[in-house]
Amino acid sequence: MAVREKLAFAGVRFSYGEKAILDGFQLAVGRGELVSLIGPSGIGKSTLFQLAAGLLEPQHGEIRLDGEPAARRLGQVAYMPQRDLLMPWRTVVENAALPLEIQGMPRREAQARVRQELPRFGLDGWADAYPAQLSGGMRQRVSFLRALMTGSDLLLLDEPFSALDGITRMEMQEWLLTMWQQTGCTMLLITHDIDEAILLADRIVVLLGSPISSPVELDVPVPRPRSLASRSHPAFQALRGQIWELLRQSATAQPVGRYA
Ligand SMILES: Nc1ncnc2c1ncn2[C@@H]1O[C@H](COP(=O)(O)OP(=O)(O)OP(=O)(O)O)[C@@H](O)[C@H]1O
């Protein structure tokens, strides 16, 4: 066991009925790492997150958290699904305080705790707004805050920025990098945007094959801190070409999804 290991899949097999998604799947993520997952549409990226979060169970193999077999993962992993799933009848504070209330914290205390966090989430002054009154970026930040309120230091972000316009998306990418540095959380991010995958991550996991067994793992040798200007770094461009080639090759075997 690696001392730094936060999450690991060891020899995991998972199928939906006859359809095998993972077989002998291996992946280890270190504590505090930011890892991007990229792969063709429908290959099993969200399934992987649902397994990590404990919403699905493997038919074979082991999923470990902090180096220990984690039979009960539900509630230990913060999972932000593709749609933000904010409750429309609850305000920003009421939505974000939900995990604390579920854990038994009195409502008033839970909401006070959330209010303290609003400024660094760019939500100062929006405590009592309803989700319908927020922009897409703000909704994502509320979802992110709610995920952090679970107390988990492992965050799974499933295409968090895909519904946002280009400028908001870039702002959110920079904001996410700041949050990652401030919180020290381990983050896994699913994206279809190769540039986003590289810009944010320490490591890129390219998921290929059906079923997936050994993903291709690529370190991102682009220096931090990163900004939009990092895209012109030679290492960035070389990696972009390498990932694109891997995905293009896989497209001959199976239909490929959308990539930016
Ligand atoms: N509950 C389910 N029952 C049966 N098949 C499912 C179920 N959920 C997903 N699948 C199938 O499993 C495969 C993997 O789905 P998954 O959503 O994990 O892929 P993905 O890589 O996240 O896709 P996308 O990039 O389009 O979001 C797909 O073929 C999907 O149709």
UniProtKB/TrEMBL annotation:
GO terms for molecular function: ATP binding; ATP hydrolysis activity. Residues 7-234 form the ABC transporter domain. It comes from the Bacteria. This is ABC transporter ATP-binding protein. The keyword Nucleotide-binding applies. Pfam families: ABC_tran (PF00005). Keywords: ATP-binding, Nucleotide-binding, Transport. The keyword tRNA-binding does not apply. It comes from Brevibacillus aydinogluensis.
